[in-house]
Amino acid sequence: MPTFLYWTVFVLLILFIASGIFGIIKPSWVNRPGQQPQTRRAIVIKTATLLIIFVLFVWTASPGKEGQASSVNTATSDPIIAEELARFDEYAHDIKGGPFVKSAEITGNEAKVTYFSDTEFEDYKKANPKSVVTKEEMLGYWTTGDAINKNLMSEPVRLLREFPKLEKVSMHLTLQGKTYSVEMTRQTVAEYFGIDLNELNADRSFELWNKKFVDPFVYTKEERQKFANKFIKVE
Hints:
This protein has 2 domains: 73 residues; 157 residues, no CATH class.
């Protein structure tokens, strides 16, 4: 709503409500000659209705809220340039479990990372001909030390930190007949972990990254399990 129209309606509603309050105090102040007098009860109902309309109007039509929503939408739709797309593909193969990344792609402002499954080991070897990793070692990586929960907890957040224009990151891993998947958005990260991704990205020493995220969450088994119970889907 245009600012001028908003404030015009705002002032009119205030005047009508004020008139209603005066009418409740003394109904004769709002009763016009020649018209049927309004009872105090009728004036109370009208004033209460105006108050409800006023609250709803301020809540839904505030210029500040409209501007805030516009700002969020602009940030979300801001395209990721080609250089960042190329950097993402390279970076995604250097995260934890990176050697086993099958695909890493960005569509719009959402990223999807898929790992090679154990049944795709031959495909992994073809994609990485210089790798000396055996199938047993591949399985061992994922089945040792709670690696699945660690990876699916930390790496989506790492990618959101490193690429500020991303709004969502999903990861998928199929292992021994089970598919593990997770989806994390910037809002979810901020609300669940209580961290500011922009702040952590600005600190290129990564001391804040370790202090505020890795140490208290990723390296804490109880927190990993809580995260897995809430966000990691197993099918």
